[in-house]
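Appendix C. Worked example: RNA polymerase sigma factor SigX
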Amino acid sequence: MTKTHTTATRYNPRELTDEELVERARVELFHITRAYEELMRRYQRTLFNVCARYLGNDRDADDVCQEVMLKVLYGLKTFEGKSKFKTWLYSITYNECITQYRKERRKRRLLDALSLDPIEEASEEKAPKLEEKGGLDRWLVHVNPIDREILVLRFVAELEFQEIADIMHMGLSATKMRYKRALDKLRQNFSDSPET
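Step 2, the predicted output written as structure tokens:
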């Protein structure tokens, strides 16, 4: 009996699909973390990139990633598989990014109020600045946080529109429309840029 049980727990996590790893993790956690670790390994880099582009800095992105990984660890036991693991993971990530962004915005408002700097106060609603970064990051500051998240989930996480709509609790057509408008705004800013 013990030998059969031991053989059943021997597997190569890299050979399993996300769904198979989720099933393993639901049975094994918290005694064995092999399946969970493989799931996190698969998505860690993209998860960090999504957070960094949404929040605008690596420090906050790292904090949010840690929080997401903990929520996944404790949430896998109750994950019902109604959506793909990837969609569920980015849904948690999206919610954690929003929480962190609001926290930072509240801090900024407090600092603005304390400094009584009218220029800073007037710009508090702007997206977080992405210091000295090129590529997509440089242009994401030109769109509002919801549109930015749609673009990040599409380009960085490579999710389908329906998955993005599910994560953001929006209709499919509304998601596509916001995506198109955000792209149009980026194109307009890019073409208006003196560097091009």
